[in-house]
């Protein structure tokens, strides 16, 4: 009956949060050392502001995704909702004040109207998701996949029609010159303040309210939650609306930041960044697990790695973003599974599948080093990766042969 | 013992994260014998069988088969060595045909490498005939009764030429006639020289079938005895490690006012040949009374409780009155608000929140009471949880402990406690002692008795008749959704209940 045993695994030094904080520091230090332009030494403030801005923009919609994931669902439509939200905001401003949009002087009332309309549309899209999932009975994956492809296309159609009607020329994007509106995003402090308020609000909701506890219960065991008299359908409604509204807020900020609403490119693929940040931050895709603080650190970690890589390779951050998100997610989830003990003593490179994985990983390592340094180093790195991995494969096989087993995989399906 | 043992395990130990499931167990199984393994839940029976059948591959100790050491890498290895297991929860692919399941993973092929359906159907048909199983090899498994599904698993084992067959509580879902048929099949298999390891806690089965009986308790081997040198009382004593005191629920309870009345309750079953999950069920429940619902698996016990609780997928027909007022719950939340609680059958799947702590599991239904200004007051919540822990004597390291660190009986108390906090008038308990050991069962019986005396109306289902006979004032019997019996405690016997529960027009 020691307090330690009672607390179970809640030791402060073993949490996802502390691990992530450490990882972020490591990434920043490595970047500072490896970057040949030494951006972090000479311009620490600029670098910090840049990472902060990126983290905040990611965080605003990643928090929404995290709420859905904690509730045991998934929202794939985030990126398209950002684009659609931005489109709606720009469209409303264009329709309500075409002259202002041309001259860059939109009235405050029009801006407020546009923002309100965007948030309302986010709420409607979230409600539509909830309806498709809880009433029609679609899997969350399908419902939000449909809006993922649908909303972006709809946004484009709206922009083309509205521009043709009002500006007299068909365009696939709406330009935004108004400095006041753009200040919403470029000020940095406004998005940061919004993000902090959102994080505090959702943090309190999840940790200190009945709804929050019920969201965890829903994500952990939906059937049991329903049989405990919890209105699971209403909770899902709340979760999907939170996600869609967060994405609309991000959409408004993004069009201000980019000074254009282009539904074709805005927020493309961001749903995966959001899910990645949540998962890296400790949310389980099985639902019922995750925190606001973890998700925030997940965003910061993801953006630090993306920023660091861009600094080291010296390309735009957007070039390698997808690659990094992919690698980071695989490693984070594999690491947490390994830590949970499920992977110990497992052979990673046995059989033909293992051999092919070695080929692929060697090629990946070679390509990455070629991008960062040059061709010769890349070939050397690829070769070295192959040698290492083949060595690992042989070692796995040998250590098993010693204990009298062969390399066939254990059939775990029957357990 | 004269012959060399067929299976011999020495000092086998298996630990799961922090829990020792099997501690230094040694055991011999002679060729051709039927060896029963008895023990309470959690005694290590299933773990031992999983090791023998290659489901668990990672353990300490040695496993000798026909005198040579083996270390299976999976069930496939074990099957090739002649060891097959019939799990309690059957392991069939419902979408495939009966024959497809028998030969799953070892499909017969024609010369061209395509699946030879005809050869498989023929071979499966022969096996089914041997097992008195009158089904077509082409029939999809989904449409079969559980008894027949089990025979498909046995047919699969036979097709693998299993010499050793492990059966894990095979009769738990069978009707009387299916049990008889299974016993005939077992006799025939033994005639063919098959060695059988039979896990059960039903003494009548064990004493009817077994040559020798091994008892496990708390992950350890306790004793192996010959059947003719033992009696059920002694085996039970070995299993529990003490005499089971007869649960004394002395003194008749005084039933109060009628609190629940159910008239002509029916529950449709669209798309199914039977059409009705429940058909024309009528009963009433009084305050301070325990009503038992008996019936075989699939008789509609769970469905009945669910339709009283607003949790059934289809809306029930008929009239349900609670405290004289007609109710029509569309969601469990409405039932909860009206003072009805349901403790579900499958604790882990439908009752517990494994990521939440003991305390959070207790207070989940009543968090509203602990709120002020929209925020949960931790101190009030903890006090509520602590109150339940003390009142129900939940054995836990604290309310912060993970729920899965508790034993089955204590987990069940947590779920019951969750509902007690809602101050229900009617508590529905669906097979509350399933997977709970004997000692904890007696404690739950006393708890139910106490709650009942405090004025609660309780409806309890159980798959164990003695349990209902101990607990209930009245017993309602269901058979395939119809009400086929209604007994007062004084007139109820196992015999009469069983007859009512199997009162189907066409047997098995």
Mind explaining what this structure looks like?
The complex is a heterodimer of chains A (415) and B (508). Chain A is mainly α. Helices cover 76% and strands 1% of the residues of chain A. Chain A has helices spanning 3-7, 16-34, 39-42, 44-70, 78-96, 98-103, 108-136, 140-167, 179-186, 189-208, 210-220, 222-227, 232-258, 270-280, 292-313, 317-340, 351-372, 375-402; strands at residues 174-175, 260-261. Chain A has a two-stranded antiparallel sheet with strand order 1-2. In chain A, helix 4 crosses helix 14 (270-280), helix 7 (108-136) runs antiparallel to helix 13 and helix 11 crosses helix 13. The longest helix of chain A has 29 residues, at 108-136. Chain A is globular and about 70 Å long. Chain B has a domain at 256-339 and 426-444 and 457-508: P-loop containing nucleotide triphosphate hydrolases (Rossmann fold, 3-Layer(aba) Sandwich), CATH 3.40.50. In chain B, strands 6-7-8-3-9-10 form a 6-stranded mixed sheet, sandwiched between helices. A 6-stranded mixed sheet of chain B has the order 16-19-20-13-21-22, sandwiched between helices. Chain B has a 4-stranded antiparallel sheet with strand order 2-1-4-5, with helices on one face. Chains A and B meet through helix 1, helix 11 and helix 12 of A and helix 10, helix 11 and strand 18 of B.
Question: What is this entry, summarized?
Answer:
Chain A has 415 residues and is mostly helical. Chain A has helices spanning 3-7, 16-34, 39-42, 44-70, 78-96, 98-103, 108-136, 140-167, 179-186, 189-208, 210-220, 222-227, 232-258, 270-280, 292-313, 317-340, 351-372, 375-402, and strands at residues 174-175, 260-261.
């Amino acid at each position: 009956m020691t307090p330690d045993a009672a607390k179970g695994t809640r030791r402060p030094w073993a949490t996802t949060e502390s691990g992530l904080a450490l990882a972020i520091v490591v990434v920043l230090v490595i970047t500072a050392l490896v970057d040949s332009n030494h951006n972090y030494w000479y311009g620490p403030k600029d670098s910090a502001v840049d990472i902060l801005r990126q983290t905040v923009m990611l965080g605003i919609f990643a928090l929404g995704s995290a709420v859905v994931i904690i509730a045991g669902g998934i929202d794939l439509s985030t990126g398209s909702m950002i684009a659609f939200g931005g489109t709606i905001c720009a469209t409303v401003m264009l329709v309500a004040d075409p002259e202002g949009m041309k001259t860059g002087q939109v009235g405050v009332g029009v801006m407020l109207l546009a923002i309100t309309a965007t948030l309302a549309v986010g709420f409607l899209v979230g409600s539509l998701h909830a309806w498709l999932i809880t009433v029609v009975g679609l899997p969350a994956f399908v419902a939000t996949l449909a809006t993922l492809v649908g909303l972006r296309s709809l946004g484009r159609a709206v922009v083309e029609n509205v521009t043709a009607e009002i500006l007299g020329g068909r365009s696939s994007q709406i330009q935004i010159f108004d400095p006041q509106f753009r200040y919403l995003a470029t000020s940095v402090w406004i998005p940061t303040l919004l993000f902090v308020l959102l994080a505090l609000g959702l943090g309190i909701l999840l940790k200190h309210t009945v709804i929050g506890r019920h969201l965890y219960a829903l994500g952990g065991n939906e059937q049991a939650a329903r049989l405990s008299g919890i209105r699971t359908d209403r909770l899902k409604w709340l979760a999907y609306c939170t996600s869609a509204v967060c994405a609309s807020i991000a959409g408004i900020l993004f069009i201000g930041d980019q000074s254009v609403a282009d539904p074709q490119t805005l927020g493309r693929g961001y749903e995966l960044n959001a899910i990645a940040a949540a998962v890296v931050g400790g949310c389980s895709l099985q639902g019922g697990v995750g925190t606001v603080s973890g998700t925030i650190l997940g965003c910061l970690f993801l953006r630090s790695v993306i920023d660091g890589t861009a600094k080291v390779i010296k390309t735009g951050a957007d070039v390698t973003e997808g690659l990094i998100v992919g690698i980071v997610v695989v490693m984070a989830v594999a690491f947490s599974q390994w830590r949970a003990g499920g992977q110990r003593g497992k052979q990673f490179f046995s059989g033909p599948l293992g051999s092919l994985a070695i080929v692929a990983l060697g090629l990946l390592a070679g390509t990455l080093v070629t991008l960062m340094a040059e061709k010769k180093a890349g070939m050397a790195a690829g070769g070295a990766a192959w040698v290492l991995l083949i060595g690992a494969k042989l070692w796995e096989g040998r250590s098993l042969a010693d204990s009298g087993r062969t390399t066939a995989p254990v059939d775990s399906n029957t357990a | 013992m004269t012959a060399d043992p067929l299976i011999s395990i020495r000092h086998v130990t298996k630990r799961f994260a922090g829990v020792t499931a099997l501690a230094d167990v040694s055991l011999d199984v002679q060729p051709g014998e039927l060896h029963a393994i008895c023990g309470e839940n959690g005694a290590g029976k299933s773990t031992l069988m999983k090791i023998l059948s290659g489901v668990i591959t990672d353990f300490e100790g040695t496993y000798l088969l026909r005198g040579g050491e083996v270390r299976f890498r999976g069930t496939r290895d074990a099957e090739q060595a002649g060891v097959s297991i019939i799990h309690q929860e059957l392991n069939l692919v419902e979408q495939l045909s009966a024959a497809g399941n028998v030969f799953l993973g070892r499909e017969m092929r024609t010369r061209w490498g395509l699946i030879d359906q005809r050869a498989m159907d023929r071979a499966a048909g022969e096996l089914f005939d041997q097992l008195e199983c009158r089904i077509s090899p082409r029939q999809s498994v989904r449409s079969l009764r559980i008894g027949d599904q089990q025979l498909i698993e046995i047919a699969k084992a036979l097709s693998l030429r299993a010499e050793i067959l492990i059966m894990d509580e095979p009769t738990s879902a069978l009707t009387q006639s299916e049990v008889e048929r299974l016993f005939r099949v077992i006799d025939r298999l033994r005639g063919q020289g098959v060695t059988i390891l039979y896990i059960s806690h039903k003494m009548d089965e064990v004493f009817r079938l077994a040559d020798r009986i091994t008892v496990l308790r708390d992950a350890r081997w306790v004793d192996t005895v010959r059947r003719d040198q033992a009696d059920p009382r002694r085996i039970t004593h070995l299993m529990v490690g003490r005499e089971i005191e007869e649960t004394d629920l002395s003194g008749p309870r005084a039933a109060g006012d009628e609190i629940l009345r159910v008239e002509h309750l029916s529950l449709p079953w669209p798309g199914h040949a039977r059409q009705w999950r429940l058909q024309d069920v009528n009963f009433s429940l009084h305050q301070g009374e325990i009503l038992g619902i008996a019936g075989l698996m699939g008789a509609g016990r769970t469905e009945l409780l669910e339709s009283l609780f607003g949790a059934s997928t289809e809306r029930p027909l008929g009239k349900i009155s609670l405290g004289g007022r007609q109710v029509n719950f569309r969601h469990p939340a409405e039932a909860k608000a009206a003072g009805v609680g349901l403790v579900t059958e499958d604790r882990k799947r439908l009752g517990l929140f494994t990521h939440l702590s003991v305390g959070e599991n207790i207070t989940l239904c009543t968090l509203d009471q602990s709120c002020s200004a929209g925020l949960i007051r931790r101190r009030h919540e903890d006090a509520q949880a602590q109150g339940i822990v003390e009142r129900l004597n939940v054995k836990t390291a604290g309310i912060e402990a993970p729920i899965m660190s508790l034993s089955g009986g204590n987990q069940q108390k947590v779920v019951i406690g969750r509902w007690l906090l809602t101050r229900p008038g009617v508590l529905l308990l669906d097979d509350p002692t399933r997977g709970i050991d004997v000692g904890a069962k007696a404690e739950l019986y006393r708890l139910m008795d106490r709650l009942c005396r405090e004025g609660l109306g309780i409806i309890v289902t159980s798959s164990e008749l003695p349990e209902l006979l101990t607990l209930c004032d009245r017993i309602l019997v269901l058979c395939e959704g119809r009400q086929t019996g209604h007994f007062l405690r004084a007139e109820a016997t196992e015999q009469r209940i069983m007859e009512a529960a199997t009162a189907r027009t066409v047997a098995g």
